[in-house]
Design a protein that fits this description.
DNA binding, alpha+beta, hpI Integrase, Chain A, Phage integrase family protein, two-stranded antiparallel ribbon, Tyrosine_recombinase_XerCD
């Protein structure tokens, strides 16, 4: 009889799981985003707007309520998400447990108003934070036609992936709903927004969490910075004509 193995030889601390290769962030172009949005069912198009226009995570998008719009200034308060726990949906604080504010562009605000006219917000009651948490009722922009909260699996298979295929986009993990956040980040970096502000809008506790996700977007931003300075100062900055400081040293 062969000897019985009583422990897992691969469980020793000297053996470590190989790390996954980092995923390259490839934001969508405006043309691709527009084409994709047209292929999303009208009831759920505003989900695209909230992802690409406000940088929200999928669970946060599902939990947005008319009450989250600030009546005094154009910002959206992100105070909750919808999570699935052991097969059941709950309301929970945003990832990291911290609420935040994001700028609400006029274009997104207008589409939210139109969406609310076409599909009336529905009051949904779910437990808060845990399966046994206190029930909370929130009016949601996005629900199923029968008035239920959206789940990740149902939305991805029933609405996201069909629109991906209809647009001719590769149906892989790089083109999941998270790509909308990357597109949002790309637009803000292109416009010159700071990493610190972008990190706050994305809900990252530290700007350091933002940087590893966007390395080649940062390189593109650096290229734009160099071109902008070259255009402002002139491309030919020969040392012979460079201004001198009063002490004879080259100016910084």
């Amino acid at each position: 009889m062969p000897p019985t193995i009583v422990s897992n030889p691969f469980a020793v601390k000297s053996i470590r799981r190989p790390k996954l290769a980092p995923t390259k962030v490839v934001p969508w172009s405006v043309n691709r985003l527009t084409a994709f949005r047209k292929n999303v069912q009208p009831r759920y198009r505003v989900a695209v707007d909230l992802g690409a226009g406000c940088g929200l995570r999928q669970g946060e998008i599902f939990a947005v309520s008319p009450g989250d719009l600030d009546p005094a200034r154009p910002v959206l308060h992100i105070t909750r998400q919808i999570k699935i726990v052991r097969g059941s949906l709950i309301f929970a604080p945003p990832k990291g447990g911290k609420s935040r504010e994001v700028p609400l562009p006029d274009s997104v605000a207008g589409r939210l108003r139109q969406h609310a006219q076409d599909c009336l917000p529905v009051a949904v009651t779910l437990p808060w934070a845990t399966l046994t948490g206190e029930p909370r009722t929130v009016e949601l922009y996005l629900t199923t036609p029968t008035g239920l909260a959206l789940s990740r699996s149902m939305f991805n298979s029933g609405f996201w992936k069909p629109a991906i295929r209809a647009t001719g986009i590769l149906d892989d993990r790089h083109n999941g709903m998270h790509v909308l956040r990357h597109t949002y980040a790309s637009v803000l970096l292109d416009a010159g927004e700071s990493i610190k502000a972008l990190s706050a809008y994305l809900g990252h506790a530290d700007p350091g969490f933002t940087l590893p996700d966007l390395p080649h977007l940062l390189l593109a931003s650096e290229d734009r910075t160099r071109r902008a300075i070259d255009k402002a100062l002139g491309e030919d900055q020969g040392s012979d004509d460079a201004p001198q400081a009063s002490d004879g040293l080259d100016t910084a």
